[in-house]
Amino acid sequence: MNLNLKKESLRKVNETLQSIDRKSNKKIFKISNPDGNHAICAGLKDEIEVTIDGHTGYYCAGMNMNANIIVNGNVGTGVAENMMSGTVHVKGNASQSAGATAHGGTLIIDGDTSSRCGISMKGIDIIVKGSVGHMSAFMAQSGNLVICGDAGDALGDSIYEANIFIKGKVKSLGADCEEKKMNKKDQNILRSLLKKASINESEIKNFKMYGSARKLYNFNIDNVSEY
Amino acid sequence: MCGIVGIYLKNKKYNSQLGKFLTGMMNSMATRGPDSAGFAIYSSEKKKKYKYSVCSNTDQVKEISKKLSRHVKDIKIKSISDHLIIETAMKPKKFIEILKNHEELSLVGYGSCIEIFKQVGNPKDVVKNFSLEKFSGSHAIGHTRMATESAITTDGSHPYSTGEDECLVHNGSLSNHNNLRRSLQKKGIEIKSMNDTEVAAGYISNGLSDKKSLKETLLDGLKDLDGFYTFISGTKNGMAIVRDEIACKPAVVAETKDYVAIASEFQAMAHLPNVNSAKIFEPEPGKVYSWGK
Question: Does ipTM top 0.95?
Answer without folding.
Answer: no
